[in-house]
Design brief:
Order of helices and strands: HHHH
Number of domains: 1
Shape: elongated
Strand content: under 5%
Mean pLDDT: 81
Radius of gyration: 25 Å
Structural class: mainly alpha
Length: about 120
Amino acid sequence: MNLWSKFWNWYENKILGSIIIIAIIQFIQIPHMVWNADLMLEAGVVSRIHPIIDWLLYGVDLIEIISIINVGMIMFSLIKKDIMQKNKQQKLVNFLHPKLLVAGMGFQFLLYLMRV
């Protein structure tokens, strides 16, 4: 097994942790949205109090990049898993096809496999 396959096997086992990270990042976005609305309305309740607070709340927006990459990796992993499952089914059908036709019950079984 090559390094690429080992990584994806490891990552598929850790998808729940990835979803938790995405959820935390999305919850961190809530103060950022309040700060951003305060900037747009020029109320000054949260924004422009201190430059460090403004910098931190602006920087939260950059953390969203991690979430976007993580969602892309999850999608790639699920698509890869789906393709591998379909290839396994097709290999099974190709393997069993001549044997089932000889046995006389092949067509119904093949239709059943195609539905599964």
